[in-house]
């Protein structure tokens, strides 16, 4: 057992247990009626008996919840495989019997067989005629390739005309320009739209979706808030049209390597010529020059989430007033440390989430703590972390009495290396899975991980790369300073990917100490990277079960 988790004593709701039990029985019945597709007589009988019972006895909200819980059980069903062209997927008879047009949500999973997909589309079309569906969120993932048969394409377009109340639509792989035109006319309240890998969608489809060539733009132009066009045939022109016509658009997601350079050039040119601004709240921005950074950032005054990927040395003329709403910052591909120091100096006090990835220099974690006093989430990937010997006094801090990382709740470090400070024992014996607990003096100094654990008094979750400098005595001293009373999840994994047998020298003593100090702890590990032998893991697990049983009896 590599993780220690408490037992969940709170049982599921009685109606959930009853729903799952009834669904299990219904699925047994449906498995006996997987007939040829032309023979729906028995399914109609089942729909009349079982579906009629549900319609009569259950209110709409409970009936819909039963449908979704049953759909999850259907996904676990094992069927004949791709070569079985006769037996339908169990989802087909399940939907045939229990789907109702008044349901607010629906998800159609991947269906391998052509006949399965046609049957489901035909069912939706028949039920949606003439009054349509009441669904507000639909996820259609049934197609495994973008090429549709003539029958599938015809039915898909007919089905889309029945979803007039949609607010969220996921249509993967098979969307095309004609479908976009139907959606633009039909879905007048659409807020979220995802057409991932729909290679048949082009700039012309965007024009038809928005009604750019019609007498009046579609109502979707005022309702759409988020659209994902990854891996489609839409170019920078189509993406820019989405920005221009969708006044309330908050998020536009596209493949980063496709047309982003030309897209950003259009935005920059528009700002320089007309000072036009847009309403996006999140943006991936590979900055190539300081002038471009200034103009693009000025174009999005409502920005809340910025992903900045750059090798620039400084940020240029960017100031705090350019980021009035920004609270999530992601930095990547950095070559110079000045970018981190300048960005955190400008907007550090308003940041609640900071993510740093793939940097080619040492990151001083104390500098981040000094300038980002309101930080709640910290993610660092593929970097080297250091600390310094100086105190936390810093001239840029507006409130020097505030301590760093006191508001930090979530920490995620992956593939990081810790630079040791004040090395005490350079000639320590190498650790191993078996002998780590027997190392007499494994402590080698302090690291950024030590510093975080000491100062993050509100820490709730931490999943980090470990270090051989973190010992039982270190953990004991940390818990004396900061008991981590809010901690719910602590996962410390392999210190380095190059040496799989090097472990964090934390033993069962630290496990017990953490259990005593952290009353809210729900997950602790990963013990296979700690100095805890398999036998000790089993013993810890047994003791935890005994303690929980005694608590339950009280």
Give an account of the 3D structure.
This protein has 554 residues and is of the alpha/beta class. It has helices at residues 14-31, 41-57, 60-75, 91-98, 114-127, 150-160, 177-186, 203-210, 220-223, 236-245, 260-274, 290-298, 338-347, 365-371, 448-455, 472-481, 508-517, 534-553; strands at residues 3-4, 105-108, 137-140, 168-171, 192-194, 226-228, 251-253, 282-287, 305-310, 328-334, 353-359, 362-364, 377-386, 410-418, 461-465, 489-493, 523-525. Helix content is 37%, strand content 15%. The strands form two sheets. Strands 1, 8, 9, 10, 11, 12, 13, 14, 15, 16 and 17 form an eleven-stranded mixed beta sheet that branches. Helix 16 (472-481) links the parallel strand 15 (461-465) and strand 16 (489-493). Helix 2 (41-57) crosses helix 4 (91-98), helix 8 (203-210) runs parallel beside helix 10 and helix 15 runs parallel beside helix 16 (472-481). The longest helix has 20 residues, at 534-553. The chain is flat. The relative contact order is 0.06.
